[in-house]
Amino acid sequence: MPGGLWPAGTIVWPKRMSELDQLASELVNAEDGGTWAPADPIILGDVTSRAITLSTVGSGITGSLRTARGVAGGLGILGTLETDFECVTPRTRSVCVPLCFAASAVDKLKLDIEMQSGGPRTRASGVTVDCVIPPECIHRGARLKEVVLYFKVGLSHPSLPATQPTMSVGRVSEDGSSFVFLRASGGGAVSVGAANAAAYYNSGNVQPLTYTCDQNHDPVSPDQQYYVVRWIEESGAGALADPMNVLIGAKLSFENITTLRNP
Amino acid sequence: MAHNSRSQPDSKYVTGFAPSGPDWINIDENTKKALNGTEGGSWAPAAPIIIGGAGVGIGCRLTLSGGGHWVSSPGNHMTMGELSFNDTPGFTTAVTRTRTAPIIGAKATDDLGIRANATLGTIEARRVGTRFMWQIRPLDHRAISSIIFYFRIGQSHGSVPDQMPRFRVVRVSATGVVQPLRAPDAATDFDGFITINPAPASGAAYYAAGAVQSITYTPTQYVLIGPDVLIDQYAYFAEIIDESGVNSLNGNIYHSARVTQLQGEIRPH
């Protein structure tokens, strides 16, 4: 009843008493806590209201969270640190990158960009090629697990080259003062390692070469360094002067992604 | 769903019923412990308050502090901007981000004027006066506070060259309009290039024993506030013109450009 209808000596009728008892039992208990399942949403505040603060350690929201609309100039969700947006379970992610748009070689006349039906790719003719991984493809703070290079041997070889091509992944500091491999064994590189000339050529088909990272890879960051894929051409007896080997692209596999802060 | 205890079941509330002291105390306690949705206040519940059912709508700012968190358990999601696509996760205070733009892949007006250097990931100027540029890919919608160029002078110089290397950053629109991120001023030339300033006193100082040197390009236009970097309208490039004129030599080595931005929110690239 409205306040004015509660004079001294008011007798509460049973029906009112029942209603009062029921309403009191439905209130959200802010001292003891508990569980409620309201039939309609509980609406707290409006856009001009002051803040609601959950200040106890462990306070949380576990259901779906939806921002209807930020206030003018505002944002839906605000954090204080980059790491505030975190994953409960670390995630994995793979990114495919081209290797032709940032490829370079000491003798650039031995480096071509092919535009074939299979897409743009780099053709190396007996020369070492450095291919930059686009920095926006490096998932900052994550672990780079492996890099798979896809390549083709351009020409059939009568015999297996004494030294087959190798591929490595390196991290270069912004001022070029340091370069480190992301793999400790094999001098930081992996070799194609075909068993014979036919397997090496593989009828000119695409071949994968997997580089498993085991150092300088956790975490990775494009902030003050960048990453390159280096291809060192075949050499020695059996190698062709102009093998026309083709570098198509690479797939980067990241793991231990703990926060939403890429790139 | 009711949670607090009832004083009596409805069946007891009949004509002639006289509430007892405990009945009133129970109702009073339930009321006292309730959240005050009109006047607000502070509570410290002994156990978590769990609200499911139709959920909770919050039309004001909700702050998580003291270790508070939001966790999306399986099947639940954070949906941004139901009515406004501009809602994105952001920061109360913009954080500083840096990202290095490698120089490999740079394109020169004279294609044979640059080449990859034996030091991994660098470009060597093979002809004096060579002009080249590369894409720096800044983060979208974030102000750029500085771009640092790293380089080495390739050969010992008897004197400082007439024109030392020049550096600038430009944005290029989809229609090809080029705009330097520095307006002409005392530190730049007409096209927004900066150079080593003050000029080294000698060729030896200029060479600096071939050590790494850096020069900082501070934008004065187009990218000064967060929304200014617009990758939907512009591509961004670092550009260098190698030394030239009297006393100039080839062989300078250029490493990278480090871009520092203020990040106010998290966006795709």
Secondary structure: elements and pairs:
The complex is a heterodimer of chains A (263) and B (269).
Chain A lengths: L13 H13 L7 E3 L5 E3 L7 E3 L5 E2 L3 E2 L10 E3 L6 E13 L4 E2 L6 E6 L2 E6 L4 E4 L10 E10 L13 E8 L5 E3 L7 E3 L5 H5 L5 E6 L12 E8 L12 E15 L4
Antiparallel strand pairs in A: 7-18, 8-11, 9-10, 10-18, 11-17, 12-16, 12-18, 13-14, 13-15, 13-17
Chain B lengths: L20 H12 L16 E3 L4 E3 L3 E3 L4 E2 L7 E2 L9 E14 L4 E2 L5 E3 L6 E3 L5 E5 L7 E10 L13 E8 L4 E3 L13 E2 L7 H5 L5 E5 L16 E8 L11 E13 L4
Antiparallel strand pairs in B: 6-17, 7-10, 8-9, 9-17, 10-16, 11-15, 11-17, 12-13, 12-14, 12-16
Task: Write a brief caption for the model.
By secondary structure, chain A is mostly beta strands. Chain A is built from two helices and 18 strands.
Structural write-up:
The complex is a heterodimer of chains A (263) and B (269). Chain A has 2 helices and 18 strands. With 263 residues, chain A is mainly β. Helix content of chain A is 7%, strand content 38%. In chain A, strands 7, 9, 10, 12, 16 and 18 form a 6-stranded antiparallel beta sheet that branches. The model of chain A has no long low-confidence stretch (mean pLDDT 82). Chain B is mainly β. In chain B, the strands form 2 sheets. In chain B, strands 6, 8, 9, 11, 15 and 17 form a 6-stranded antiparallel beta sheet that branches. In chain B, strands 7, 10, 12, 13, 14 and 16 form a 6-stranded antiparallel beta sheet that branches. Chain B is rod-shaped, with a radius of gyration of 32 Å. At the A-B interface, α1, β1, β2, β3 and β4 of A face α1, β1, β2, β3 and β4 of B.
